[in-house]
Amino acid sequence: MSTAPSAPGPAGVRGPAISVRDLRQSYGDFEAVRGISFDVAPGELFALLGTNGAGKTTTIETLEGFRRPAAGTVRVLGREPHREAVALRGRVNGVLQHSGVFGELTVAETVDLARDLATDPRDRAEVLDMVDLADRAGVAVRALSGGQRRRLDLALAVLSRPRVLFLDEPTTGMDPEARRGTWKVVSRLVAEGAAVLLTTHYLEEAERLADRLAIMHHGRIRVTGTLDEVLDGWGDRIRFRLPADVRTEDLPELPGATVTVEVRDAVPWAVYTVGGVSAADRAHRAMAALLSWADGRAVSLDRLELRGASLEEVFLGVADETAPEPVPA
Ligand SMILES: Nc1ncnc2c1ncn2[C@@H]1O[C@H](COP(=O)(O)OP(=O)(O)OP(=O)(O)O)[C@@H](O)[C@H]1O
């Protein structure tokens, strides 16, 4: 007779595959991770973005069991990674920033060695084909280029059909074609039901791959949600050059918008931020009010534009600490 687990059990069928609650980590007196929480479901890719030193690698290393949480809890397939590494072996894998493969072996020998240690591994030909290294099978690992080395790391990580995959800047050093190839492999794993936690400095990578994302800064998650939620939360911007005959204090109040004046190349611009839920609808109303104000006073709105945010703008805002409050996930 079997009993169903009351919490997400080792089978990981129910609940998130990765769960992080109020995680804190310190190096001596320095608190690198300051209370972060997020979940990743099976078949979901979560991108952890952030400024240099934000705490992403520390978080991933904790999830991989290399560090015990200083406070808070982390669970991977329902297990505590730092205490239950054996139970997670083979079902959880990662591509770390520094790979540990042996340089003297050939690519094929390296894959075969990893296959010997795995349960139900993919065929060597299949993995080498997945990462586009089939033509390098007989080459010594030390003779691979940096980007090819990263692809071999990925091959080794996907070989055992992991349920959870940690990818710490997996495409650093890859040319654009290799990067796209990697995206294909990662997408395939997610489609097969793996939960993937990805860190990257390539925002396009997160835009392409992430079901949900978070942006970290100084140990905290500042913004999180789907890409649309993050961009909506940041809000749309209405901008125009401030006409010479309009003083800042004469600018109109617009519904649902806040105004600032930014100086670009010594020219002042009026910038209205229309944020929050259904920003597009509010931006429309704010724009209509602005046009009516300008018509009434015969003011010309030079270089008038209405634009939604890009992920890059949100990222830079987080780095500048001008981000709005986090959007609920
Ligand atoms: N072994 C260590 N000893 C002391 N401080 C550390 C150690 N490892 C990391 N740190 C510090 O902890 C903070 C978080 O580092 P972490 O590597 O987690 O950031 P990151 O977000 O991965 O950064 P990057 O984008 O630059 O890779 C940084 O300020 C870093 O200097």
Q: What is the topological layout?
A:
Blueprint (H helix, E strand, L loop, with lengths): L17 E10 L2 E11 L4 E6 L5 H8 L7 E6 L8 H4 L3 E4 L11 H11 L6 H7 L15 H13 L5 E5 L7 H16 L3 E5 L3 H7 L2 E6 L2 E6 L1 H8 L1 E6 L15 E8 L2 E8 L4 H19 L7 E3 L3 H10 L9
Parallel strand pairs: 3-7, 3-8, 5-6, 6-7
Antiparallel strand pairs: 1-2, 1-4, 8-9, 10-12, 10-13, 11-12
This protein binds adenosine-5'-triphosphate.
Adenosine-5'-triphosphate binds next to strand 2 and helix 1.
Tally of contiguous helical segments: 10
Q: Hetero groups bound? A: adenosine-5'-triphosphate
The succession of helices and strands, N to C, reads EEEHEHEHHHEHEHEEHEEEHEH
pLDDT averaged over residues = 88
Query: How many strands appear in the DSSP assignment?
Result: 13
Largest sheet: 6 strands, mixed
Unreliably modeled segments: 1-13
Give the proportion of residues in helices: 25-40%
Which outline best applies? elongated
Rg from Cα: 24 Å
Content of β-strand: 25-35%
Strand numbers in spatial order across the main sheet: 5-6-7-3-8-9
Distance between the termini: 39 Å
Structural class, from secondary structure content? Answer: alpha/beta
Subcellular location: Cell membrane
GO molecular function, one term: ATP binding
Membrane topology: Peripheral membrane protein
Main location: membrane
